[in-house]
Amino acid sequence: MSSIHTTSDPESLRDLAVRVAAEAGELAAEGQAGVTVLDTKSSPTDIVTKMDRATEDLIRSRLLAARPDDAILGEEGGDESGTSGVRWVVDPIDGTVNYLYGQPDWGVSIAAEIDGTVVAAAVNVPRRGEMYEAVLGGGSRRNGEPLQAPPAVPLDRALVATGFGYFSERRRQQARVLLEVAPLVRDIRRGGSAAVDLTGVAAGRCDAFYERGLHPWDWAAPGLVATEAGVRVGGLHGGPPANDLVIAARPELYDALDALLAPLGADRD
């Protein structure tokens, strides 16, 4: 891991992301038992554990050892500049509340951007024994096997995953939206990790996903995995994914879910 790489082809970036995500996932899994809250961020429910920071520190050190001129945007460590044109977007433990409570649905997400476009990704879900990887234009894989999302289903037969924010007013609005969505779909799932939910759409564990309040580290890596598996990942009215709203589904179902969410104010608090 200490050898320095100068090439920036997406396949080599993907391979590095997979290696680092595997090591980071092992560290986080070993540290899950007995972990406690270290700090809070935007609200008392927006927590950080010592393992979030330790895992991100490991990821940063490994990436910079291999590619010292790259930039890194991490959930815990902020944005570091670089000169190579490559930026890594890192979420060391997506699903920290699940992690704190000993639940299995959390993941390590590492994506590589070139000039602002995500070109390579790895998402490690250690407790499920799953490593997802993707290269822009090169497809997605789960544990080395090609990954293709199932065909779209009608909205009324869709299992839809979602998540909630950390502020009480946002949660109230999200609950109001959910009251309107729930009767019109097969069922709702709230898993607690956008990385697990987005890769879950790619893997067919749910048909669609939407959530307000996500950040680039939440969707960069799993979003590419989903996109390369045939899922459309974007925002409201078909725009790009954004903090306002992220939607993911097969294209036909995406359009139906987008049309349902827009008049409900799913992108507003």
Automatic annotation (TrEMBL):
Keywords: Hydrolase, Magnesium, Metal-binding. Signal peptide: none annotated. Pfam families: Inositol_P. Its EC number is 3.1.3.25. The keyword Hydrolase applies. It catalyses: a myo-inositol phosphate + H2O = myo-inositol + phosphate. GO terms for molecular function: hydrolase activity. Its cofactor is Mg(2+). InterPro entries: IMPase, Inositol_monoP_metal-BS, Inositol_monophosphatase-like. It is an enzyme of class 3 (hydrolase). The keyword Magnesium applies. Belongs to the inositol monophosphatase superfamily. This is Inositol-1-monophosphatase. It comes from Nocardiopsis lambiniae.
